[in-house]
Every structure is written in structure tokens, then in C-alpha cells.
Amino acid sequence: MRTVTVGTRGSALALAQTRWVVARLKEEWPDTDFRIQTISTKGDRDRAALQSLAQKGDKGFWVKEIEDALLTKRVDIAVHSLKDLPTEQPQGLEIASIPKRVDARDVLIGKEGMKRLEELPPGARVGTSSVRRKAFLRAYRPDLQIIDLRGNIDTRLAALGTPDYDAIILAAAGLIRTEMRHRIDEFLDPDILLPAPGQGALALETRADDDLSIEVVYAIHDHATDDRVTAEREFLAGLGAGCMAPVGAHATVKGGVLTLEGWVGALDGSQVIRATTSGDPAECADLGAELAADMLGQGAQNLIEAAHG
Ligand SMILES: NCc1[nH]cc(CCC(=O)O)c1CC(=O)O
């Protein structure tokens, strides 16, 4: 039996999504033995560094060590949350497969009587550290207090057991994948809070010359998801922004037409630039790049630079 080693971070979410990937791969390749290897990243080890790096717009602190493990052949396949992956691929590695996306939306989880965004009273304290969520929530509800909240899903849910937070915002995908869908109180409409580019999708990364692993992971590639997230990520790349920017992007495909919506916000909620484009899904990359160029023309650059302080 051949053995393929799958690398991942060790968080509950990372392990849950990697076990899901391995189960799917095993269905396609029953004669292959898949082993999971956990790898700790700078983001896992040093939360203080994470905060300051985040403010400088540094990219890839969730993925660097895992990519090193691919390049040195300690692992053959890496499983990432696509939204944590920088838009530039390192030399020698490629995203060889993007499995079918789960729900891309953000969700709200609140205390009793605060289980919907509309129910939150003025001044309610909402936990999130995402600059995107802060920017768009402040624009929609300037009366809310947005309070920093970092950590893995368990840490963030635990914050609701303290007096410091009335509600928190998370990605639906993380809760769905860790079998905590029942904790979700409200799915937030993308018209109110546009998700992050690639949110809800996974990326399976391999060495670019490892034909065997590429073939293995490609068995669970999903073309429709790929078109959507390619449009979203080209938009992000075209803005010159990373996952730490106040940028949202969400693509849908209906009746053979891909529609891409993009937002760039001011961190203080004073402004959100919004734009939409649509076209042939085969042109997904160009649609993303064009939307970015359109928004740069409308002043998006200043908002992105301001958020990096
Ligand atoms: N930035 C952390 C992160 N990276 C991926 C997810 C889960 C959702 C996904 O797979 O897109 C989360 C948690 C969150 O944003 O709530």
C-alpha cells in the first residue's frame, strides 16, 4: 500500500477539516494509506506576534511551516483554509485541488435576547478581531461596540460565558466543520456582512512536481467552487491586499453566469466601497482583476493602506 502524508495545523478546526479531506480521499483511493501529520505554525505559537504581524499586513503565518514541510517532503499534501492562504503561491508549490465549498457566510452567536443582529441593543458588545468584520459591522451598526476577540473557535465561544461580550461573529464554515452548527444563532446576509475571499473553502496544496499527489487530490476538486474562489482571490490580489485587509468578496454562479461582489471598508466604518460584476465563469480570474481595478479607481487603495496603519 502506498502512503501519502497529509500536513495540517493542530487546531480542532484544522484537524476536523483534514479528517474530512482524508475520508473523502480514502473513498476515491481505497488502496492508499493516508497519514495525518500536525505542524505548528507561527500563528499557533505566538499570539502576540500574530497581532503585530497582522497590523503590518504580513501574510502566511498560518501556512509557512506547513509549506516548508511540503518542500522538504515531510508531508505530501497540505490542507489549508483557503482564506488564510496568501494570494501568491511560493515557488515549487501549487494549489492542486479545491474541494466543494461549505457555507461562505459569517454567523452571529449571542446571549439570550441577542441572537439576531437586529435584536442587539445600542452599545451591545460584539467580539471579533477581523478587520473586515469590524469595518463592515461598524458601517452597518455604528452604535455597536466592537471588541477584539482572538483565538480558536472554543476560546471565542467561551467568551460568551463572560460578561465582556454580548455576541460574537464567526465563519459558519468553522462551526459546521467542527460539528457545532447547532451553536449558530443567525446566518448574516452577505448584503450586510460580505464574507472574506475564499471563506468556507479549503485548499489542498502539493509540490508542483509531485504528479502522484496532484492526481490524488484532484479527485475531490470542485470546478464550481474553484471558479468562485478564483474570482474572489483575484479581486483580493488585484487590490494588493491580503487576508488582513478590510476586504470582502463573494461570488455566486447562477444560470451559467458568475456574479462577483466586492467591498472595501474603512476600519472605522465611515465608508464602504461596493462594486459588482458578472460574466462567464471561465473568465473568473479576469472578472476579479477587473473589479479590483474598478475599485482602485474609486479610492480603495487609501482604505487598505489606512487599515495597515
Ligand atoms: N481566520 C481564522 C479562520 N480561518 C478559517 C476559518 C473558518 C472558516 C473558513 O474555512 O473559511 C477561520 C475562523 C473564522 O473566521 O471564524
TrEMBL record:
Q: In which pathway does it act?
A: Porphyrin-containing compound metabolism; protoporphyrin-IX biosynthesis; coproporphyrinogen-III from 5-aminolevulinate: step 2/4
Instruction: List the catalytic activities from the record.
Output: 4 porphobilinogen + H2O = hydroxymethylbilane + 4 NH4(+)
**What is its biological role?**
Tetrapolymerization of the monopyrrole PBG into the hydroxymethylbilane pre-uroporphyrinogen in several discrete steps.
Name it. Answer: Porphobilinogen deaminase
Q: Hey, which family's this protein in?
A: Belongs to the HMBS family.
| Higher taxonomy | Bacteria, Thermotogati, Deinococcota, Deinococci, Deinococcales
Identify which cofactors the protein needs according to its UniProt entry. dipyrromethane
HAMAP family in the record: Porphobil_deam
GO terms of molecular function: hydroxymethylbilane synthase activity
Extra notes?
Answer: The porphobilinogen subunits are added to the dipyrromethane group.
Residues with S-(dipyrrolylmethanemethyl)cysteine modification: 243
Q: Which GO terms describe its biological process?
A: protoporphyrinogen IX biosynthetic process
PROSITE patterns, per the entry: PORPHOBILINOGEN_DEAM (PS00533)
Subunit: Monomer.
Species of provenance: Deinococcus metallilatus
Annotated InterPro entries: HemC, Porphobilin_deaminase_cofac_BS, Porphobilin_deaminase_N, Porphobilinogen_deaminase_C, Porphobilinogen_deaminase_C_sf
Q: Where is the Porphobilinogen deaminase N-terminal domain?
A: 4-211
Q: How is the cofactor bound?
A: Binds 1 dipyrromethane group covalently.
